[in-house]
Amino acid sequence: xxxxxxxxxxxxxxxxxxxxxxxxxxxxxxxxxxxxxxxxxxxxxxxxxxxxxxxxxxxxxxxxxxxxxxxxxxxxxxxxxxxxxxxxxxxxxxxxxxxxxxxxxxxxxxxxxxxxxxxxxxxxxxxxxxxxxxxxxxxxxxxxxxxxxxxxxxxxxxxxxxxxxxxxxxxxxxxxxxxxxxxxxxxxxxxxxxxxxxxxxxxxxxxxxxxxxxxxxxxxxxxxxxxxxxxxxxxxxxxxxxxxxxxxxxxxxxxxxxxxxxxxxxxxxxxxxxxxxxxxxxxxxxxxxxxxxxxxxxxxxx
Length: 302
Known about the structure:
The chain is of the alpha/beta class. The chain has helices at residues 2-20, 40-55, 69-82, 98-106, 133-147, 163-176, 194-207, 219-232, 247-254, 266-281; strands at 29-34, 59-64, 86-89, 111-114, 127-131, 152-158, 182-189, 213-216, 239-244, 260-263, 289-292, 295-298. It starts with a helix and ends with a strand. The longest helix has 19 residues, at 2-20. The protein has a 6-stranded parallel beta sheet with strand order 2-1-3-4-5-11, with helices on both faces. Strands 7-6-8-9-10-12 form a 6-stranded mixed beta sheet, with helices on both faces.
């Protein structure tokens, strides 16, 4: 009987210690599902997110949908079943992700989005952290207008279905609309993937041999476009404007293959989302939308 009492007292003391010193309790867990790990942008974002989470003692598990909304939904279901303390999502599809976010809400798991927002009427997100993509799109449009002196035929290699790209394309079109001499002759999905962008550009060179410029919505697409132009040995100069600011794209800018790029800061985004989660865990108010500025680079600035 005495032994039972002693065990009970010890148990109470241990629980009191854990309550008094949260560091002794199990670490908070964060489940992350990204659009892809193929792009340098997301690799940089992941590295910063994991590094920042370590500072707070959080345990992070990172997965990627690899452009497949169904696969991403299964990953979110798995995180829900594991009862993670928070979810970070870069949606493969800004509308389809809504039902998965709603399921996490029902399970009491707070959801944070990075880079790509949830545009569905379903699901509540605590905070969204991303680049100022509308402004980035405008900056890309200004690069194109300057390179072509306000005149020429332009194509867009798009990635419909994700909010970040919708914003940057909208910004680009708003800027181009201010130049009557610029005409967007094609806006075609490349889904943010290099091989697809290359294949599409091969077709576009046949359909629009007079094309003057290409806005590629990320650097993987831009590099695919450059590969197609090089392979075709196209006789005319085609201005390529990219988006991300990866090292590979910077080298292509130096080589004169890409005219200019809009630079994003994925490491900043990764750090900010973890700090936002930490504030939320601490019961502090957080901003529902956090925008990170962008920058333009050209060969003259490298």
